[in-house]
Amino acid sequence: FLYRSSFHLYNFTMTSGSDPYIFTSNTLPRDSRFLPPLANGLLGWRVYHSIMHMGSVYNGEGGDCHRADVPCPLSVTMEMEDPVQQSYSLNTHTGVFTHTISTAIATATQSFYAHRYYSQLMVMEVSIERQAVTMEPVTVKLSSSFTPQSKDIDFQSSPDYRGGRRIQGQTTAAEVPGGPRPTVDLIWTVMPPSLILQPEQSHSRWGFLLALGNTNQSTEASFDEGLSLMASGDLRDSHQQAWKELWLDSTVELAGSETLSKAVIGCLFYLLSAFPPLHDVSGLFGGVSPGGLSNGGSGQDYWGHVFWDQDIWMYPAIALFYPRLARAVLEYRVRTVDGAKDNAQKQGYKGLKFPWESAVSGREVCPEDIYGQQEIHINGDVSLAFQHYLYLTRDLSLFTEGRGSEVIWGVADYWVSRVTWDQKDQSYHLLGVMPPDEYYYGINDSVYTNTVAKSSLQFAVELASLLQHPAPQEWQKVADHMKIPFDQKEKYHPEYDGYIKGDPVKQADAVMLGYPLGLAMSPEVRRNDLEAYEAVTDPDGPAMTWGIFAVGWLELGEAEKAQKLLEKSFDNIQGPFQVWSESSDGSGAVNFLTGMGGFLQAVLFGYTGFRYAHSIKRLDFKPLLPNGLSELIIRGVSYLGNKMDWMLRKDEVCVILREQSTSVEESPVTFPREAGHICQMDSTISCWPL
């Protein structure tokens, strides 16, 4: 794109030697856990694996609840005699994984994709192209590990459907006693043991399809659509077009570091893959778990449960680009309100208590009771996601007919019933909790928990005012008198009441007060918090931590220090397909979307310094790029109905308005460089020097 301001002509395109969107290798990872996952918000699968998963399909009661294993008919490898060369690539532009084998006479290509538009479909395609003039047939062997059985679903064979095999069944145990057991219907095209390019053929292509659904009707309709698109040659094109549209509105490009650029692209690709198609953000969306849809079976990757990881770590990057996908996350929480109410009642409190680990019902499914009982900051984390949505969109419909107000006010009622008043210090306290730093439990006044509780109470009051709903006085009273631990002598925030400075810390906790919680503090206190906890944070802790430290140091103008900490995250990226592990040694959850979300926040909110104010319609920037990065371009940002692109250089910031809100009330938007320096955006572009 070309954009002209009164000072410059911008060619809004970056160039590099190789395409950073394509991850290629001549070999597969030794550890099969790091094979690339393919997902589309409903189906998830790790390539070549014999198991796949479907969103919202869990098996097991309570703490035994986990993603139900579904056998995958696409678990097929390809072989040829006398291979000369072979390669594997993941094209994140198109969402297609490819295996290519070349021999002296032919090249065979095997491709997989989880269809990005028709989310009940997954596809394998094989093509053979003759490279030499010969009259010999060319044979490609297909080896399958598929068996039409599951330990979680009682499958029964059903009559073939339009040439496809079919099995149907129900999970063996409901999440809640007496609750529904999901039905699963799987149809797939049969794969032969080999494919042959005949002597008279120069090339040929084969397609294989699976359709997975909850009802006969939806599965058959998807299979029919897949066959039709395959016959017309449009199956892959429709998939790739859907990915093209996604990337058009969520592109992040960095000039200066290929490693960083690839990491950002990988994070965005895998995170977007966990969300439903833009045209069909339906009630089937079951939230986002730390390992995504491709993982989460019994005993692995947190059983596929939804944690605070979704609301605090993954959500912000998605919400910045896609209000509809952000709303889908919040609507998932709304659908679990009845379960949250039940959780609160079981604990003896009022309002809503969202589960530490959530599946479909909203009832607690954590295998260990202590987390569900004590890690109550989840309530504030959920509320914060709703708050950010309102500030980004001003969409009050979510809170009225969308029932979002029930969530916010139910959380506020919980806090009021959960706090303890201390007459001596005239403060409210939250006792017997576990902070985000899970090395400690049964502690009092976790600084993160108390701060996020205070914030959610304040938001409940604000929302009540917006909706002209009477707010109980206790909401504001508890917020005003909530104890926020602070050491006046050391000028820092202790992690909890009784924390001894220097004690080890598992992960980002108190350092999150400044961002994302936005607790007001002086630069001195912000620095003291960062220094105190950076020195004692477990280097083998979960991957999202260093992104938050990076944001903090960028706020203080320490770009190089921030970059060193952010680059620690590279140790969690297990090549060659940019799949993250929870811990830097490769252990823990894989395809760790939580870490990817934290990393992206350092780029989107750290480098840009972007914050949105709730009381006035403006964007706050405080951009800072480290040495080695000359330019950052972010396309497709959505704010108050306006679509815009941002460009940051060492000496200049530009904001380009692509689409302006049709609501006069929400336009225009102003962009402050700093206090007292407001740049009004005209209909095209606003630029100002740094």
Automatic annotation (TrEMBL):
Coiled coil: none
Transmembrane stretches, start-end: none
Domain Glycoside hydrolase family 65 central catalytic: 295-501
Gene Ontology cellular-component terms listed: cytosol
GO biological process: carbohydrate metabolic process
One GO MF term: protein-glucosylgalactosylhydroxylysine glucosidase activity
Any Pfam family matching the protein: Glyco_hydro_65m
PANTHER family named in the record: GLYCOSYL HYDROLASE-RELATED (PTHR11051), PROTEIN-GLUCOSYLGALACTOSYLHYDROXYLYSINE GLUCOSIDASE (PTHR11051:SF8)
Family stated for the protein in its record: Belongs to the glycosyl hydrolase 65 family.
This protein's name: Protein-glucosylgalactosylhydroxylysine glucosidase
